[in-house]
Write a structure and sequence with these properties.
The chain has six helices and seven strands, in the order E-H-E-E-H-E-H-E-E-H-H-E-H. The protein has 204 residues and is α/β, with parallel strands linked by helices. Helix 2 crosses helix 4. The mean pLDDT is 92.
Length: 204
Amino acid sequence: MDHNNILGTVLAGGKSQRFGEDKSQIKLNNKLLIDYILSEITNEFKEILIVSNNQIKFKNYGNISLIKDFKKDQGPLGGVLSAMKWAKEKNNKYKWISTFPVDTPFFKKEILKQFLIKINSEESKLFFIKSNNTRHNIFGIWSIDLMKKLEDDLNDGQRKVEVWANSVGVKVINMEFINNDPFFNINTKEDFEEAKNKINNDQL
C-alpha cells in the first residue's frame, strides 16, 4: 500500500473506566503511555491524527494533529468516523485510516510494516491484525469509502467494533509471536504493574 494514502490515527478518546484515569497520560518508565505508540508510527506516515476528547499531552514530532470526536459517546467506531471526516475535510488524497490504540506500549513499527505488506487492497475495505488466535480490532486499516455506512450505522446505535467489522466483511491478517506479546494492552492498574515489570525485566 502507498503510505501517502494512509492517515495514521491513534484512538485516545476512551473513558478509561476500568483504569480510573486517562490511560494516555500515565507514565510508564518515565514516558507517557501515548508516546510509546507515537514513537513507533510517526515516521511511518506523512501525518498522524490523535482523536481524544481531552487536552492531552504528547510528544509532538511535528506531524501530529489532535482533534475531538465528531460526536461523543460513540466508542472506538466514533473515533474512526471522526478521523475519516477530518481526512475528507483536510486532505482528500487520504484513502485509508490506519488505527492504533493508546495503551499498547510493546507494539513495534516492524509489525506495522509486515501488516501493510500483507494487505491486498482489492480484497477488502477493512483489515485487522490477528495474532495467536486473537483478533485485534483496533489495529486496523479502514477504507474511507466506508465512511457513509459507518456514520449511518452509528446513528442507528451500532457501537461494537467486532460486530460492525463482521457486517462489512473484514479481512484478517494473521501473525504469530512465540515469546512476548506485542499487543499486550493496559486496561487495569494490575495490567500497568505487569507492564512495568515487563519493561524492567527487558532492561536487565
